[in-house]
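Comment thread on ticket #2218

A.B. wrote:
> Attaching the input chain for the structure job we discussed in standup.
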Amino acid sequence: MRILFLSGTAVGGSAMSTRELAQRMAARGHEVDVLLRVETAPRRWMLQHRLVNLAVRLPRFLAQPVWRVAGLIGRRRRLVRESPARVWSTILPENSLRIFLRHEAPDVVVAASVGRMAWRSIRKELSAAGIASVLYLREEAAIGHLDISNAPPDLLLTNAATLSERAAAIGFRAHFVPSVVSLDAIRVDTSREVVLFINPVEISGREVAVALARECPEMRFAFVESWPMKPEERRWLEDALKGLENVELRPRTDDPSELYGDAAALLAPYLTNGRPRVVLEAQANGVPVLGSSLDALVEAIGPGGLTVDADAPIAEWASALRYLLGPTNYDGFVSAARTYSERSEVDPEIIVGEFERLLLELVATRKGSS
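C.D. wrote:
> Ran it. Output below, let me know if you need it in another format.
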């Protein structure tokens, strides 16, 4: 089977899990390509974005030439890695896809973390080419690809049971297939000294994290960069951390021992409803999690931590953190975190086997009906 994975991001947990899934599918004998969106040409991306918005508002006869021009921007792709799966980068995956399909003939395209207009374009291209489409929902906002965009895929997957339930509520059947998270390489010994907060940007709950550090001066916090931070995001963070001597701002790292090596707890006050891979990674190291009580996050944390309403008073967050780290409770949370990380639901081989089965079934059904 020839598979093209298409991701609207090259950074963060979604892209990492996409690459890991692609590599494991390649190891099973499938021919696999990965097309990742990189933010290396913001002006061209913005021009394309404005042209698309203009085309949507114009009458059809005026919109068509605008669509054509928008489709010419960002078509180039660059080969990043040859094996085990070929990885390509591009600034606009939906435009690169058109060129890709002219030279390659995948049996199926799996898209994840793409914008709404991008998905509509991708779905249209695949439908015209007679290629099976799979939409892998990793973010709650992507539910809009189904009803608002009215562009359902041939196969719908979600990485959280609650997202499958949301899809079912609006009439779409979705298969729950958790994101692949390879844990063997990230297991480390931790000295359990700091409260770890990864990716200190707005949607990760940076305001709660900063307020919590201020509320708990007796604790040490480590804020670790993950996604590339925009200048305004960095300015906000640096201003917010002024005077907080119990917070250390650390650079991005791919070394698990640097990331989790001194973590006592993971702080995840997220504002988006999803299952971040850092929760599973932390729990595999026996690091319990304090996170927002959003459905998918509650699902991810399970008994290996605590959850609090994202908009709860900061005193409530502080109380939960002190309870989690309290000497009479902490060992129990550590044990529960490790045990929960070992459940069969998140076993990569089981996940990849189910993913492969669903794709083979989809391709065989389409070939049988043609």
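A.B. wrote:
> Thanks. Noting for the ticket: The first strand starts at residue 2 and ends at 7.
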